[in-house]
Amino acid sequence: MHVSFGSLVVGSRLLRWGVLVSSAGCARFGYDLGGSELGSAGAGAVLQDGSAGSGGSLQGGAGGTGSPGGAGPSILEDGGAAPSLSDAGTQGDAGWLPPCRGGGAFAEPVVLDGLPSPPLFGPSLSADGRTLFFAASGDLYSARRARIDDTTFGDVRPLSSLNSNLPELTPRLSRDGRTLYFARDSDGTGFFRDLMQSRRPSPGDPFGSPSALTALNDPFYSELSPEPSFDGDELLFSSSRPGGPGLFDIWRGRRSSGPSGGGSFDSFDSFGDPQPVASLSSPEDDSGVTLTGDGSTAVLSSARSGGLGSRDLWLAARPSRFDDFTLEANLTELNTPENDTDPAWRSDGGELLFASDRSGASLLYSAVRPCQR
Hints:
Layout: E1 2-10, E2 13-22, E3 25-29, E4 110-111, E5 120-125, E6 131-136, E7 139-144, E8 154-158, E9 168-173, E10 179-185, E11 193-199, E12 211-212, E13 223-228, E14 234-239, E15 249-254, E16 272-276, E17 286-291, E18 297-302, E19 312-317, E20 326-330, E21 340-345, E22 351-356, E23 363-368
Antiparallel strand pairs: 1-2, 2-3, 4-23, 5-6, 6-7, 7-8, 9-10, 10-11, 11-12, 13-14, 14-15, 15-16, 17-18, 18-19, 19-20, 21-22, 22-23
């Protein structure tokens, strides 16, 4: 297997591309080594083996944005009615779960049930671990589960106020449950994405019209996979802009004033001053990162050497949020030779969600580890 890279100028923009060649075939991609995450306009997935995937626009595609088939049940596995999003404010979405202690190895990953048809990408959990946000065929959705140990979701709903005629992807919720960060195709080509945000008055309200994080977006490159810090002062994200060591690297935007400086989540200013995070970046593709609530442990999706496949999940840690990360290990119990991407911690660190095309289509998975409180 080998990878070829190239670039060309489209109008005033630099287009970066690659081709992954293996014994099974060839897959093209627009921003990283995820051959299953690029679709042409109106086309289905292009899988790593070069075959056509399931219909609909992919996370990186520019196809139609209609709801995928199999919209999932409106009742939960135990037969009870799924909690509605209007209940979220009283069910603790804005309060984080008590952190797990001791860590430990992850159990075997389990597919999340009750969700739309694949391809699925970008899982993210609310602070109470019960509301799931994700991307399906170019649109953003939410779903609910009755308990944090459930792997079956119900009450699947499109986020209509956020979805557009361009693909949306990689949603991530803030600590207070009132801001959703995500990425949107900026021009319909599938090669350029911008970071967006949408606010709502409370966790039980609909999200408002989204706006671009203009201070973090580079019009000539791509940004995706936003990850807000627990205190709301920083936003980690992945970008293809120059300044890092690889095709896509991890970057950080900061606020000059924010909640940790005494401000409220309603009054803090915009993120700015994007800088590369050298301790999480490599010469290969680094396409997304997630932090535990205390910011001490990260899981990174990366194509760096030493992994099992195209993109793997890696564990990194640091003594405090003011220190650099140290790469700890490849999460071999979770990874496969296929693409394992879009990691997202549950707020207590006892569960990790991620996307993987190990089955031939991109699905969402849950992996739990021992949680002592």
